[in-house]
From TrEMBL:
<dbReference type="InterPro" id="IPR048279">
    <property type="entry name" value="MdtK-like"/>
</dbReference>
<keyword id="KW-0046">Antibiotic resistance</keyword>
<dbReference type="GO" id="GO:0042910">
    <property type="term" value="F:xenobiotic transmembrane transporter activity"/>
</dbReference>
<feature type="transmembrane region" description="Helical">
    <location>
        <begin position="21"/>
        <end position="43"/>
    </location>
</feature>
<feature type="transmembrane region" description="Helical">
    <location>
        <begin position="266"/>
        <end position="283"/>
    </location>
</feature>
<dbReference type="InterPro" id="IPR045070">
    <property type="entry name" value="MATE_MepA-like"/>
</dbReference>
<keyword id="KW-0472">Membrane</keyword>
<feature type="transmembrane region" description="Helical">
    <location>
        <begin position="418"/>
        <end position="437"/>
    </location>
</feature>
<feature type="transmembrane region" description="Helical">
    <location>
        <begin position="167"/>
        <end position="188"/>
    </location>
</feature>
<keyword id="KW-0813">Transport</keyword>
<protein>
    <recommendedName>
        <fullName>Multidrug export protein MepA</fullName>
    </recommendedName>
</protein>
<keyword id="KW-1133">Transmembrane helix</keyword>
<feature type="transmembrane region" description="Helical">
    <location>
        <begin position="362"/>
        <end position="382"/>
    </location>
</feature>
<comment type="similarity">
    <text>Belongs to the multi antimicrobial extrusion (MATE) (TC 2.A.66.1) family. MepA subfamily.</text>
</comment>
<dbReference type="GO" id="GO:0015297">
    <property type="term" value="F:antiporter activity"/>
</dbReference>
<feature type="transmembrane region" description="Helical">
    <location>
        <begin position="138"/>
        <end position="155"/>
    </location>
</feature>
<dbReference type="InterPro" id="IPR051327">
    <property type="entry name" value="MATE_MepA_subfamily"/>
</dbReference>
Length: 446
């Protein structure tokens, strides 16, 4: 007799039910952003702003690694969700198991190559003689922890697809608290410097990674590990479909690199520290949109697979209202709270404080448009249209943002650097709205 399970995605989500379903993922991502901010605050206060600058110098490597894991997670999650919507639970489990194996193999390769070429890598990232020792200590430890990092990204995404977003939040909460406590212990009483921060971060990665392995080994619910069938097309489709998220992370790596190179010319190491403040705060604010998009993506994939356009339209309408209201709220918070946000990282009156406070007044306009851009890209990934999603992400980041970072500082100096992202987001939102309008009949969300 075939075992029948009720899929938690197979129901009619009203506005309240949708937000309740997405809330654990939203809270999980916001909390991740918060403990990332806590990490940088501890580094700035307990080690120094030069160490803070070093963190931003090596961030492109971390972004690229997370991008690969996110590509497998979101692209594969769309395939898994679609198969579940079609009633093919066995195929969904096989695809999931195959993606997990590939994630482990890829992460081991990245760690080996990165550690083998650590010094050339640090120099290529633009580290000055002052910052290079900090960069080597921090990046070396995090490269060792690459398998934990990539697996925790994979499991945090796919716990949502498995209909267990609350568990993903709980694991993230445990990881964040562990990271924050160990940050204080390692950099405070134990005086381990920036290497202590990296070790704390790596141990934080390990909690969702190890717990996720244990959870998915148990044959509970619709999604768990099984002996996978080799399907090259699944990997190809996952990579293609998740390429927008990969593009976003690679672009973040590139734009961080360009921010660092441009700012060190304009304002030295203090300027790089101010960039770190700005970009980490941007990450925190964007986690609301990212978490919401991750939370609703499995529902969108399931409705698409089952062909239920009535449910899809209702979900889409709720999503647009949430994104619009939250964008206005985050913009207002950034404009009002710029002095407080700057003072968290640097002493009032310092060069880093003055640069970041002025930057928030310009950079904050990006939050009016970034929400709809993030959601639109994630939605097309959930609808298995990775090409469209990747095209939007590429235009937003490699296109508009990169060009802005290269050209605007020549016109307006530091102000031009801060304006590059808001202008890029504003131009991208026009393209996003056009794509949403054109795809309304094909995907049935309007």
């Amino acid at each position: 007799m075939t075992e029948q399970r009720i899929n938690p995605l197979d129901r009619d989500f009203g506005a309240g039910a949708l937000l309740r379903f997405a809330f654990p993922t939203i809270f999980m991502m916001v909390f991740m952003g918060m403990y990332t901010i806590v990490d940088t605050v501890f580094i700035s206060r307990l080690v120094g702003t030069e160490a803070l600058s070093a963190v931003n110098i090596v961030c492109p490597v971390i972004y690229a690694t997370v991008g690969l894991a996110t590509m497998l997670a979101t692209g594969g999650g769309a395939i898994i969700g679609r198969r579940m919507g079609e009633g093919d639970d066995r195929g969904a489990r096989s695809a999931f198991s195959l993606l997990a194996l590939c994630c482990v193999a890829l992460s081991a390769l990245i760690a080996l190559l990165g550690l083998s070429f650590l010094d050339p890598l640090v120099r290529a990232l633009g580290a000055s003689e002052i910052l290079a020792p900090y960069c080597r200590d921090y990046l070396g430890v995090l490269l060792l922890c690459t398998p934990f990092n990539m697996l925790q990204v994979l499991f945090q995404n796919l716990l949502v697809t498995a209909g267990r977003p609350g568990l993903g939040f709980g694991l993230t909460l445990a990881a964040g608290c562990t990271n924050a406590v160990l940050d204080f212990v390692f950099m405070g009483p134990l005086k381990m410097g920036i290497m202590g921060a990296a070790i704390a971060t790596g141990l934080g990665y390990s909690i969702p990674a190890v717990a996720g392995l244990l959870v998915f080994m148990k044959k509970r619910g619709s999604l768990y590990f099984c002996r996978p069938t080799w399907e090259g097309r699944v990997l190809a489709e996952a990579c293609l479909n998740g390429s927008s998220e990969m593009v976003s992370q690679l672009a973040t790596a590139l734009t961080t690199f360009l921010f660092n190179i441009q700012m060190i010319k304009l304002a030295g190491e203090a300027g790089v520290a101010a960039v770190t403040v700005m970009l980490y705060t941007q990450f925190l604010m964007s986690t609301l949109y990212i978490g919401f998009s991750m939370g609703v993506a499995p529902i969108i994939s399931f409705n698409y697979g089952s062909g239920n356009t009535r449910r899809q339209k209702r979900v889409f309408g709720t999503c647009l209202r949430f994104i619009g209201l939250s964008s206005l709220a985050i913009f207002a918070l950034t404009m009002i709270g710029a002095p407080v946000l700057s003072a968290i990282f640097a002493a009032p009156g310092s060069t880093v404080y003055q640069l970041s406070r002025a930057g928030f007044r310009l950079f904050g306009y990006s939050f009016l448009a970034s929400g709809i851009n993030i959601f639109t890209s994630a939605m097309f990934t959930a609808l298995s249209n990775g090409k469209l999603s990747a095209g939007l992400s590429f235009t937003r980041t490699f296109g508009f943002t990169t060009i802005g970072l290269l050209l605007l500082p020549r016109l307006w100096g530091v102000d031009g650097l801060w304006l590059a992202v808001p202008i890029a987001e504003g131009l991208t939102v026009i393209a996003a709205l056009v794509l949403l309008w054109r795809g309304r009949k094909r995907y049935g969300y309007l």
